[in-house]
Amino acid sequence: MHVTIIGAGLGGLTLARVLHVHGIPATVFEAEASPMARMQGGMLDIHDYNGQIAVEAAGLAAEFRGLVLAGRQAMRILDQDGNLLFEKTDDGTGGRPEVQRGELRQMLLDALPEGTVRWGCKVSRARTLEDGRHEVTFGDGATVVTDLLVGADGAWSKVRPLLTAATPEYEGSAFVETYLFDVESKHPATAAAVGGGSMVAHGGSAEDGINAHRESGETVHTYVALSRSLDWFAAIDFTDPAAAADRIAAEFDGWAPELTALITDADTDPVLRPHYTLPVGLRWDRVPGVTLVGDAAHLAPPNGEGANVAMLDGAELGQALAAHPGDVEAALAEYEEAMFVRAATPVDDAVLLESLFGDDVPESLLALVRGEEG
Ligand SMILES: Cc1cc2nc3c(=O)[nH]c(=O)nc-3n(C[C@H](O)[C@H](O)[C@H](O)COP(=O)(O)OP(=O)(O)OC[C@H]3O[C@@H](n4cnc5c(N)ncnc54)[C@H](O)[C@@H]3O)c2cc1C
């Protein structure tokens, strides 16, 4: 068996690594030209109930522990005036250690045999051949034919159409992403407001807010969350970064300056990241020789689980293939059934809130975080 994986994100690379651990060869075709082609985004908290299980399956627990940034599980919740509503320190025992996404991806790349990932191979389409195998076509016209094709190619998967006609739709909200560098020296008030881990600032609604995270060194990474239509965002000229930042900051008029500075004083241009989703509960009939992992299978709004679940998908698919030598269909059926159930099951609010905040949080604050009217 040789597995053809499309996409070298966390899902595809975890699959390739777990297959390697079990002696099953794989090739990963990735659109980007190199591991450094693009900034890999910010911090990820990797959970003990999904992402860390995948790390264990990949045999990389020690390497993972070496990437964990101490103190980043601390959390602060502020109101729009900058008043502290809740604070949790990081005593090192939490179940959601934080790592840099780029370093986690590199850890997986370093654990694969040389040449496993083929960079600069962007898939343009995939089709089923008469003999049941699948043919993948790349942007330059080259093709690959495979017995087992796995789409780990994210939101806009080119493999997904082999299984379902579902396509992502705009969910109604977006992040605007900014970075502040050298916060201690250049933005001490903002550094103090964010603290050593993550900071969530809410106004009157749970939908709009400013979420910031202390990354490695003196960098603060911000997602400004706004529930607005795509037309509303389209009216903002993001090619004029200063005007775009001012327009976004205007939605937070009257908020504490140490919070709005995360938008107006940013060292990077604001980047719009609209949230698209696939239908919750999406499933498909088994198609021989092809399946999906991660966002390609169950794209959800950012809820802190996506990368974790993509890794768990990859790990479980790799383990299922190893557990059913000579019977790929049994492996795919077993993997998909568990994946469908997991993706259709909403994150349990109570479990999530307790894992984030512990069990001593005032009910009024929980209501705010849950989005309930006061
Ligand atoms: C703003 C934002 C913040 C988020 N924050 C978090 C968080 O804090 N915690 C968390 O767990 N999740 C978070 N997520 C979700 C998380 O990023 C995704 O769920 C996760 O990356 C999915 O992994 P994946 O491997 O399935 O797909 P991806 O990470 O999207 O990887 C897909 C790979 O496939 C490649 N590819 C795409 N198309 C092709 C093609 N045609 N041919 C070849 N290669 C292709 C891409 O270049 C990419 O390398 C966030 C998402 C967003 C948008």
TrEMBL record:
Family assignment from sequence similarity: Belongs to the aromatic-ring hydroxylase family. TetX subfamily.
Subcellular compartments: Cytoplasm
GO cellular component: cytoplasm
EC assignment: 1.14.13.-
Subunit structure: Monomer.
Assigned keywords, A-Z: Cytoplasm, FAD, Flavoprotein, Monooxygenase, NADP, Nucleotide-binding, Oxidoreductase
Gene source species: Amycolatopsis iheyensis
Function: An FAD-requiring monooxygenase active on some tetracycline antibiotic derivatives, which leads to their inactivation. Hydroxylates carbon 11a of tetracycline and some analogs.
Predominant location category: cytoplasm
Ranges for domain FAD-binding: 2-337
Catalytic activities: a tetracycline + NADPH + O2 + H(+) = an 11a-hydroxytetracycline + NADP(+) + H2O
UniProt protein name: Flavin-dependent monooxygenase
Single GO biological process annotation from the record: response to antibiotic
Top EC category: oxidoreductase
Domain notes: Consists of an N-terminal FAD-binding domain with a Rossman fold and a C-terminal substrate-binding domain.
Residues annotated to bind FAD: D45, R101, D295
Any Pfam family the entry gives: FAD_binding_3
Gene3D superfamilies cross-referenced by the UniProt entry: FAD/NAD(P)-binding domain (3.50.50.60)
